[in-house]
Amino acid sequence: MRYLLIDHITEWKPGESIRGIKNVAMSEDFLEFHFPGTPIMPGVMLLEAISQLTGWLVAASSDFKEWFLIGRVLKCGFYGFALPGDKVEFTVSKISSGSEESLTFAAVGMVEGKKKIAAEFGGSLTPLSELENPEEQRRFFSILTRQTGM
């Protein structure tokens, strides 16, 4: 199963930062068991959404030649739950680039102005063509950023 955890990209600055939204829907299968009777979005899924959003930043900034793969979490804190019906607003910012192979980012996820997750993490770049079709990803990015004539 594959989870696509970013529903909308609201803003991005090439090579610098990106903002995106995850709408938590009651119908998402991971909520069935986390936790029965009290559904919350698992923290690791919030971190994965941040990682995916970072991938979109790298892809769009590299003309869809590269993708970011998270390799290490330097800091991560959880400050509350993301519940069904919540709109989690993520911001990811590049904080260093020791080299093109090793990048570090900071991110925060908020619901109605309240912090739910904050993280600093690093990883590496990989050719996007080894993971996905770059042209399909370019088209998907245009949908996420609402740049299509839909």
Descriptive terms for the model:
single chain; 150 residues; alpha+beta; Thiol Ester Dehydrase, Chain A; 6-stranded antiparallel sheet; globular
Describe the structure concisely.
With 150 residues, the chain is of the alpha+beta class. The chain has helices at 43-61, 134-144, and strands spanning 8-13, 17-23, 66-78, 87-99, 102-111, 114-127. The protein has a six-stranded antiparallel beta sheet.
Write structural notes for this entry.
With 150 residues, the protein is an alpha+beta fold. It has helices spanning 43-61, 134-144; strands at 8-13, 17-23, 66-78, 87-99, 102-111, 114-127. A 6-stranded antiparallel beta sheet has the order 1-2-4-5-6-3. β4 (87-99) and β5 form a beta hairpin. The longest helix is centred in the middle third of the chain and has 19 residues, at 43-61. The two termini are 27 Å apart. The mean pLDDT is 94.
Strand % is 35-45%
- State the distance separating the first and last CA atoms: 27 Å
**Helix run count:** 2
The helix content, as a percent range, equals 10-25%
CATH superfamily: Hotdog Thioesterase
Assigned CATH architecture: Roll
* Main sheet attributes: strand count, strand direction, barrel closure: 6 strands, antiparallel
What is the residue-mean pLDDT, rounded to a whole number?
94
